[in-house]
Amino acid sequence: MGLNIKDLTVTTADIGPDERLGDRHAKDRDNAPPALRVSGVPAGTAELAVVCHDPDAPLPRGFTHWTLYGIPADVTEIGPDADSRFRPGPNDFGTTGYGGPKPPAGHGPHRYYFWVYALDRAVDGTPSRAEFLDDYRDAILEQNRVVGVYER
Predict the structure, then answer these.
(1) How many CB atoms lie within 10 A of CB 42?
(2) Using an 8 Å Cβ cutoff, are 104 and 152 in contact?
(3) Does residue 92 come out as left (phi exceeding 0), alpha (psi in the -120 to 50 range) or beta?
(4) How far apart are CA 115 and CA 49, in angstroms?
(5) Which one of 27, 45, 115, 133 is separated from 122 by 20 to 30 angstroms, measured CA to CA?
(6) What is the DSSP code string of 92-128?
(7) Which residue ranges are recorded for the region named Disordered (predicted)?
């Protein structure tokens, strides 16, 4: 199945394109995930998944801030209560669920990619970001994202 990137749309009122994430989303503040709005979910979607990743972290594979699974295909908003409504997976803080931005002080701006994946099969368990991308790459019908920036 070919990758289609024209229909799935992800938006949020919490951040504009490449704009700064508000402090309330930061790990050492309210640690509230932005509310993601999803539309254009393709036919045949069994489940949605979310991954928030910081590719600017000074680590070989960046830093995973959020993995979230078990989101029904008809969900149109993934809000601040998402960790209690769906199935949160591991982040690179060593916990599960959303862990907001907390870049090293003085390291400059970091980009936070909030990816939404439409999958043709359900995710089993709570894989890490790397496990999810390896094990479900063939299940991705579409993917899209919003990006925010944060600096300390």
Answers:
(1) 14
(2) yes
(3) alpha
(4) 8
(5) 27
(6) TTSSBS-----PPTTS--EEEEEEEEEESSPPPS---
(7) 15-35, 79-104
- Give the closest residue to 38 by CA, choosing from 136, 137, 118, 148: 118
Radius of gyration of the chain (CA): 14
Terminal alpha carbon distance of the chain: 42
How are beta strands 36-39 and 9-11 bridged, if at all? antiparallel
Burial 135-151 (b: 16+ CB within 10 A, else e): ebeebbbbbbbbebbbe
Scanning the structure block, which residue is given the tokens 């790459």?
137
Retrieve residue 146's tokens. 């919003």
**What residue ranges define each of the domains in the chain, with the CATH number in brackets?**
9-150 (3.90.280.10)
**Residue reference for tokens 């801030």:** 65
